[in-house]
Automatic annotation (TrEMBL), chain A:
The lineage of its organism: Bacteria, Bacillati, Actinomycetota, Actinomycetes, Micrococcales. This is Multiple sugar transport system permease protein. It is found in: Cell membrane. Residues 93-304 form the ABC transmembrane type-1 domain. Belongs to the binding-protein-dependent transport system permease family. The chain crosses the membrane at residues 30-56, 99-118, 130-150, 170-198, 231-250, 285-303. One of its GO terms (cellular component) is plasma membrane. Its main location: membrane. It holds the Pfam family BPD_transp_1.
Automatic annotation (TrEMBL), chain B:
GO terms for biological process: transmembrane transport. It is found in: Cell membrane. GO terms for cellular component: plasma membrane. Residues 73-267 form the ABC transmembrane type-1 domain. InterPro entries: MetI-like, MetI-like_sf. This is Multiple sugar transport system permease protein. Gene3D superfamilies: MetI-like. The chain crosses the membrane at residues 12-35, 78-98, 110-130, 142-163, 184-206, 246-267. Keywords: Cell membrane, Membrane, Sugar transport, Transmembrane, Transmembrane helix, Transport. Belongs to the binding-protein-dependent transport system permease family.
Length: 311, 282
């Protein structure tokens, strides 16, 4: 390969590079150089850790001083059986399930309805959009601070509800802690999903609405029979991304409910990974929880695609 | 047909407009509460607490006396700035290569990039912690904080989509004129996608600025912690001893929230659905 060809990325093929080399590196090998930092990044921060997580989960792994030679024996599935036999872990997975059952339908319905409404509105459009996006761009830690005071025992919500206030209060009530977290996250993330649906709505052909209207369909009917099917690929994406958000849950239970109380009712698997892996020095157990979570997310994503993309 | 007369339609529009407005106010309420609460001398959980009276900056002084706000802000700035710089430089290069250059491994790289979006970062924290903190000893360092976020995959994806939208003739003409790829990227492609670049920059900004879990794991020294971690520690440890913990915490929340919101409001015109939509449609 001539240096000239390398400089122009081999795009100008007046002086043809040897065929074999082209087959090996492609027509524009400069692309390899340009994409290399990103490829190295993915290998170092994604592929290698993923492999390492699986490796750790099959060994008895503990922290040792850097450079120290320690024996980390292969233990097969024993970390997995310990994880699956631990009631706290099972509880945390059930908590995420509860989170998803509240968060996902709420997210899909609210973001689609709000996106449809925002799409047609003409007055103070900017203000309305900003209002719905702002929680998404704001740090969870900052927003958690507000909710902490709104939903604490003598917070504003209970103050307004008076005798109707739940007892025990929201965040220390094992039946209510997770729903409050699920609603917090729905509110926080909704702006992003509205944005996705707004983009999807631009691709629904206008003629479909016109013919629906000619057929006598009202706004509700045309929403159900034109908009909802029209944005189905976006719905698949929204459900998958919302599921991933649920699997990632950490900051909210950690700060809102002091790490997952009451009685573990809002503990999340990632919180357990932190507690067992880093606080208690059992990274092998934590890695096994992580691998199970990844598999669960992949399975849910596949099922969701199958169900939603079926015609 | 009967229910879509102009009068009825207009009524329907006003109905949905009012509902949207009401929803927007509900969405913004916690922000109002945060701001007013941060300037209140005393915590008042009744509805009267929402009226902005008896305002003071004492809460800001209070939290600043307990944690080093300025130092935390600087840490957040370094963390976010480095991630932005690295993502913009390497993301544009990678995005351009993925969109416009035919090289071996392009398909594989793109497939891995899509996969990365499905496997969430939080699930990799244990091996990444083992690598960065235990193996390389990068605890309490900016490098350790930055590394896992150094290139934002979503941003690379957006860059690729932007470059993909440009017409191919533009590139072949430039190549015929003898321009190198870097020159084409710098003088032709980049200027054309400049408005869209802001979307990617804004999206990249909110990641590290708002990130809590990773810097929380990697920094134990308080003078290395970004603001999100400082504030979280303040909420769970220190606040109980302040004379108005309510106001002090909300003051910290305002300082943490303000830069992202200000940037977003200033550039919200660029934060448009079509850019993001093209990014996620693949």
């Amino acid at each position: 390969m001539s240096t000239e060809a390398a400089r122009t990325g081999g795009a100008v093929t007046h002086s043809p590079a040897p065929r074999k080399l082209t087959a090996l590196v492609g027509r524009q090998p400069l692309g390899i150089v340009m994409a290399a930092p990103y490829a190295v990044f993915l290998a170092a921060v994604f592929a290698y850790p993923l492999g390492l997580a699986v490796w750790i989960s099959f060994h008895r792994y503990f922290f040792a001083a850097p450079g120290a030679q320690v024996d980390r024996p292969f233990v097969g599935f024993s970390n997995y059986t310990r994880v699956l036999g631990d009631p706290a872990v099972r509880q945390s997975f059930l908590n995420v399930l509860e989170f998803l059952v509240i968060n996902v339908p709420l997210t899909v319905v609210l973001s689609l309805v709000l996106a449809t409404a925002l799409n047609s509105v003409t007055h103070i459009r900017t203000f309305l959009r900003v209002a719905y996006y702002v929680p998404y761009v704001t740090a969870s830690v900052a927003l958690v601070a507000v909710w902490l005071f709104l939903f604490s025992n003598n917070g504003m919500v209970n103050n307004v509800l008076g005798p109707l206030a739940p007892n025990p209060s929201w965040l220390v009530n094992s039946g209510l802690a997770m729903p409050v977290i699920a609603i917090f996250v729905t509110w926080k993330q909704l702006g992003f999903f509205i944005l996705l649906y707004l983009a999807a709505l631009q691709n629904v052909p206008k003629e479909l609405y016109e013919s629906a209207s000619v057929d006598g369909a009202g706004p509700v009917r045309s929403f159900m029979s034109v908009t909802v099917p029209g944005v189905r690929p976006a719905t698949t994406l929204v459900v998958i991304l919302a599921t991933i958000t649920g699997a990632n849950l950490f900051t909210e239970p950690y700060l809102l409910t002091n790490g997952g109380g009451p009685n573990g009712a809002s503990t999340s698997p990632v919180f357990l990974m932190y507690q067992k892996g880093i606080e208690q020095g059992a990274p092998d157990i934590a890695a096994a929880i992580g691998v199970i979570l990844v598999i669960a997310v992949l399975v849910i994503s596949l099922i969701n695609r199958r169900v939603l993309e079926r015609d | 047909m009967l229910d879509s007369t102009p009068a009825k339609r207009r009524k329907g529009h006003w109905l949905s407009f009012s509902a949207l407005l009401l929803g927007a106010l509900v969405f913004l309420f916690p922000f109002y509460y945060m701001l007013v609460g941060s300037f209140k001398a005393k915590s008042d959980p009744s509805l009267k607490g929402l009226v902005p009276t008896g305002l003071t900056v004492h809460n800001y002084a209070q939290i600043d006396s307990r944690v080093n706000l300025l130092r935390s802000l600087v840490n957040s700035g370094i963390f976010t700035g480095a991630v932005l710089l690295s993502t913009v430089v390497f993301g544009i290069l990678g995005g351009y290569a993925l969109a416009r250059l035919h090289f071996r491994g392009r398909g594989t790289l793109f497939a891995i990039m899509l996969l990365v979006q499905i496997v969430p970062f939080q699930l990799l924290i244990i091996p990444i912690y083992v690598m960065i903190v235990r193996t390389y000893g990068l605890a309490d360092s900016y490098l350790g904080m930055i590394l896992p976020f150094a290139i934002n995959s979503t941003a690379v994806f957006l860059f690729r989509q932007f470059f993909l939208q440009l017409p191919e003739e533009l590139f072949s003409a430039a190549r015929l004129d003898g321009a190198g790829e870097l020159r084409i990227l710098w003088s032709i492609a980049l200027p054309l996608v400049r408005p869209a670049l802001l979307t990617a920059v804004l999206l990249t900004f909110i990641g590290p600025w708002n990130e809590f879990l990773w810097p929380f794991l990697v920094t134990k020294q308080t003078d290395m912690q970004p603001l999100a971690v400082t504030l979280a520690n303040y909420i769970s440890n220190v606040a109980g001893r302040a004379d108005n913990p309510f106001g002090a915490i909300l003051a910290g929340a305002v300082v943490l929230a303000a830069p992202a919101i200000a940037l977003f409001v200033a550039f919200q015109r660029h934060f448009i659905s079509s850019d993001l939509g093209s990014g996620v449609k693949g």
